[in-house]
Design goal:
By secondary structure, the protein is an alpha+beta fold. Helix content is 51%, strand content 12%. The chain has one domain: Winged helix-like DNA-binding domain superfamily/Winged helix DNA-binding domain (Arc Repressor Mutant, subunit A, Orthogonal Bundle). It has five helices and three strands, in the order H-H-E-H-H-E-E-H. Strands 1-3-2 form a three-stranded antiparallel sheet. Strand 2 and strand 3 form a beta hairpin. Helix 2 packs across helix 4. The radius of gyration is 20 Å and the shape is elongated.
């Protein structure tokens, strides 16, 4: 085999439809936000809650300072992974279900079928 002949056990590249730019950009923001282990765990925690969770309860769940948790929550919110609302002095967060749906669809976008 010379450098220009493909081995028999390799298939030629099959074209796939392009991912729309808007979807690709959203996925990039989501994956960037989830690249930190604490943010991944915060999202997992919020996704399993039946209702919005007070930031103070999130802080108690982790061995991280309140400002650090607030930073991670802001990154998740800016990526569209969580929503927040204030009630007086308290902030409540919940996982954004539509963003979780996008994440669950990602493997299908990558599958061979």
């Amino acid at each position: 085999m010379n450098g220009r002949t493909r081995p028999d056990d390799f298939a030629p590249l099959r074209p796939v439809p392009a991912l729309p730019v808007r979807d690709a950009e959203r996925l990039q923001r989501v994956f960037k936000a989830l690249a930190h282990p604490a943010r991944l765990e915060i999202l997992r925690l919020l996704a399993r809650q039946p209702s919005a969770t007070c930031a103070c309860d999130i802080v108690e769940h982790f061995d991280l300072s309140q400002p650090t948790i607030s930073h991670h929550l802001r990154v998740l919110r800016e990526a569209g992974l969580v929503t927040s609302r204030r009630r007086g002095l308290w902030s409540f967060y919940r996982a954004e279900r539509s963003a979780l749906q996008v994440l669950s669809e990602f493997p299908a976008w990558c599958s061979a079928s």
